[in-house]
Amino acid sequence: MTAPATAGGAGRSPWFWIPSLYFGQGIPYVVVMTLSVVMYKNLGFSNTDIALYTSWLYLPWVIKPLWSPLAELFGTKRRWVTVLQFFIGAALACVALTLPMERAFQMSLAVFWLMAFASASHDIAADGYYMLALPQHSQAAFVGVRSTFYRLANIGGQGGLVYLAGELTERSGSAVQAWSWVFWLLGGLFVALAAWHALVLPRPEADRPAAAGTSAGSLVKDFFAVFASYFKKPGIVVILAFLLLYRFPEAQLLKLASPFLLDPVDKGGLGLSTKEVGIAYGTVGLTALTLGGLFGGWVISKLGLKRALWPLVLAMHVPNIAFLMLALWHPTSLAVISAALAVEQFGYGLGFTAYLMYMILVSDGPQKTAHYAICTGFMALGMMIPGMWSGWLQDHIGYVPFFVWVLVSTVPSFLMTALIKVPEGFGKKVEE
């Protein structure tokens, strides 16, 4: 598998840049969405504040379709990728600088906010560059590679970096110092990544600013036409309700999973150390999530989405009971806790594949790329809003009632699943 001949990188193998590009795409997302939660919990902030303010960080992914034309109008996708990676590296270093300061929570959140916008913009540029730098047959061949390295970034961030922060905290005796070191390390990694991509990324002939050959007015007109065509889809109300409510229980659970594992037993948590959370949730759990996603894709390819839908939906929501059992029994064995988290995450991986396939179905058509981006915006909105109140709710009712509420919250998801329409055989692999 080789890249097409391109200026500035003729014949260079995609293996030089695809793994690092998608590893780099995954790291800032997991930092903003997951590492920030663990860090703020280590620094002693309340679940209410953590869930509310970190949920706001989803907003750039909600609204990123609104500024995606900028990546078409100005500059090349290659330049957007490298510049944004340098910016993310600088932002990570700024987080390290803010943590020892008096108003660390507010200042670090402001930096995370900027990082979130940069990361969402980087997603747009990287995905666009991928489609320009590779011919279509190579895009299909490398889709598994990009997905694997994105997942590895998640495991490395949520598992390895959390474990490292716990180890450094134990050695230094200061969570602030430990997390500062972690973010200095991440900042250096991202600057090095940006420098690497500035050297090795090919320069496709097709990677040119659209503004060079197309008027801004025409692009804006086309942009609004894309949105109009999306909202004219048959059954759009049911489609949007499904996109917003399918992950309604998971949106609340995800924000409180790490705080629950870290909180002491007298506050209803499991009292794990930061290192143990890195192992149980960040490594074992995410590995199970990845395997669940792969297995879910295989199931859909064999049965089609219509036949696989309800088994996958049940597989996603029923295992949430694992958190309720953990909250009731408070096991002390890391192996038992890890096994429970693995079951829940494996089920989540299974169910999430059904959601992704439904977004592909909704997006199908001549404007599939833009329509898929709009779907991902509604997906992020469905995670952002429930996550905002989840910490406040848990702080007021405790962990056991909260996890009971999460199970009750599956009802809207089941209702919307019953209402959507999926054609027979969609997603099923055609036997040759």
Notes on the protein architecture:
It is a single chain. By secondary structure, the chain is mainly α. The protein folds into two domains: 11-204, Growth Hormone, Chain: A; 216-422, MFS general substrate transporter like domains (Growth Hormone, Chain: A), CATH 1.20.1250.20. Helices cover 78% and strands 0% of the residues. Helix 9 (236-245) crosses helix 15 and helix 11 packs across helix 14. It is globular. The protein starts with 17 loop residues before the first helix and ends in a 13-residue tail after the last helix. 47% of the residues are buried.
Record the SSE blueprint.
Blueprint: H1 18-42, H2 47-55, H3 59-73, H4 77-98, H5 104-133, H6 136-172, H7 175-200, H8 216-231, H9 236-245, H10 248-262, H11 274-303, H12 305-317, H13 321-329, H14 334-363, H15 368-397, H16 399-408, H17 410-419
Helix pairs in contact: 1-2, 1-5, 1-6, 1-7, 1-10, 2-15, 3-5, 3-15, 4-5, 4-7, 6-7, 6-11, 9-15, 9-17, 10-15, 10-16, 11-12, 11-14, 12-14, 13-14, 13-16, 14-15, 15-16
Radius of gyration: 22 Å
Taking the alpha carbons of the first and last residues, their distance comes to: 23 Å
Number of strands: 0
CATH architecture of the largest domain, by name, is: Up-down Bundle
Proportion of beta-strand residues? under 5%
What is the CATH level 1 assignment of the largest domain?
Mainly Alpha
Task: Output the helix-strand order.
Answer: HHHHHHHHHHHHHHHHH
By CATH, the superfamily of the largest domain comes out as: MFS general substrate transporter like domains
- Count of individual domains: 2
Helix content: over 70%
